[in-house]
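Readers of this paper often ask what the protein records in our data store actually look like. Such a record has a labelled line for the sequence and another for the backbone structure tokens. The tokens are whole numbers drawn from a learned vocabulary of local backbone shapes. We quote a single record here, exactly as it is kept in our systems:
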Amino acid sequence: MTATGQKQTLWQLCFYGPKTKDDMVYLALTPRGLREILDYSEATKTPVWCSADALSEAEFEKLERGNVTRFTYSLTDADQTTIHGALATIEEHHPGVRVWIESTVFGA
């Protein structure tokens, strides 16, 4: 919980392939998770990927941040194959980088 009593999103470190760099990428699944990571001070430099339902196409077009990439499909409640496909796509663009993925397991 934050000082204002709001729940914070839980982020889990996910390794996909060998990690050869100390950099990181965030994968936000929900609008709240995306807002939290975009509010994080280091997020202006850190690559952020998000589910299609975390940010609408119109909101994405208005977003003035070059570090955000939006999937065209939803990752919320996605099956394991879909999540692994998304992680493979991130790995193609950011080889050897750690991926922090928003966890919705605990109803955050």
